[in-house]
Amino acid sequence: MHGVQLIGASLHAELLRRGLTLATAESLTGGALADLVSASPGASETYPGGVVSYATEVKVGVLGVSPQTVREHGVVSEACALEMAEGVRRLIGTDLGVSTTGVAGPTEQEGKPVGTVFVAVAGPDGTHGRELRLDGDRAEIRDQTCVAAATLVLETVVGEVG
After folding, report:
1. N or C terminus of the chain with fewer C-beta within 10 Å?
2. What is the layout of strands, in order, in the sheet containing 126-133?
3. pTM score, two decimals?
4. Per residue in 13-55, pLDDT tens?
């Protein structure tokens, strides 16, 4: 089994075992994270849906990211990722929300280089994020981001976030 599929299956199994649900809020991954978490048979028991929020207006208008956060930190920031995760969790009504935002390339965004990525998870015990500095082409950065986001959810669920 391919590494990305394996982490998706592991995530689904762990969420199912614990009776938890997950929603996704994606920017640079453009739906690839939703594909990863919905690929396992029976995924509808743990994954009701998500939001692809490529545009800033969707981040603000649908997910509830604060315009002040966008002004002060930009959309390529941990602050934005945290608010995206909280927003999708609230919007979909799940136990957990996970988000991805960053620069997949081919050029920098908001003065941040290609490979600057933030992932975040929101849950009943709070919200936490992780900054990533990834290498590779656009597709590789998107794949690595999906794996990192799923890994952060798994770590959160089993209590190993640090």
Report:
1. C
2. 49-52, 22-26, 96-102, 116-123, 126-133
3. 0.96
4. 999 999 999 999 999 999 999 999 999 999 999 999 999 999 9
pLDDT digits (tens, 9 = 90+) for 87-132: 999 999 999 999 999 999 999 999 999 999 999 999 999 999 999 9
The residue assigned the tokens 């209590």 is 159
Hey, what are 47's tokens? 């994954």
Structure tokens at 131: 């900054």
Q: Which of 63, 15, 14, 5 is nearest to 35 (CA)?
A: 5
